[in-house]
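Re: Re: ligand-bound prediction request (bumping)

Still looking for help on this. To restate: I need the protein modeled with zinc ion bound, output as structure tokens. Inputs repeated here so nobody has to scroll up.
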Amino acid sequence: MSPAASPPWFDGARGEVKAALAGNRLAHGLLIHEDPGAGGLELARWIAQTVNCREPARAPCGECQQCRWIAADQHPDVTLLAPEGESTQILIQSVRDLSADLALTAHGQGYKIAIIAPAEAMNHFAANALLKTLEEPPARTLVLLVTSQPSRLLPTLRSRCSRLRLVGPSRATAASYLEAARGAGPWAEALAATGAGPFALLEADPAAIAQLHRDTMTTLRDIGSGNLQPPAVAERWAKGELPIRLACLESWVTERILESGSIRDVTHLSGQGIPPNICRLFELSDAVRDMRKLSHTSINKTMAVEALLWRWARQ
Ligand SMILES: [Zn+2]
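Reply:
Sorry for the wait, this slipped through. Here it is.
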């Protein structure tokens, strides 16, 4: 990562890791709890570089072979485990292979490191297989779990790891970071439209997102006013860029809910006396979130989008 694009919101977590290393108390298992899109995987690579860098005095130097291999995910002692291909899960065999590899001596003089991201992608069996490695970690090994949803991990897995919190940046900081990393563009608009963290947009085209956001909002307004019917829109949405449209929709609904101040009211009223329009916003929010989860599967997207837009038309 170029110095110009170094994320300033990493500073706190980096300081914690450096202090733990200096005190020789870096845990074998580290759970990096990131805000979505805050860059937990990049922080994990930074930790791997820091412990394996050939220039300890200024680790990670970013220039030695160790640092460069890790940045390119090509280090023989650093394994990145993530869902493969179309799968959304990390399976038991992958974790078994990883554990067997961790038990071997490192190729270099540094640590053997496993980075699992997102950690909640491990299914139940895979997570259980990892437990044993965390209970009896081989010397000079490090397991880094990256997740934005620690509650979805096995409690036994969580309890065997030290927690490292990575809080995401403000939208302005995120936009500055993306501009430094990728060049000028409507980053603030793209971040606001999708509600995403900066690392989720590192490869994105901000102008295309901003355009898609405007088109999505216009369409929704036309459906709301009855000028457009859901079936006329569903097929077009289902065919292209559906994840971005759904992100725009979820971000919009979330902001309306926050604007209404209803989060506090709902907590206090236990569901009673909530204005019906707020209830409908919550229902819509749930429906969009479900749809975002399903949009990676083989569901009939046109029908699902149409159902969602009818729900919108009635809200
Ligand atoms: Zn280095």
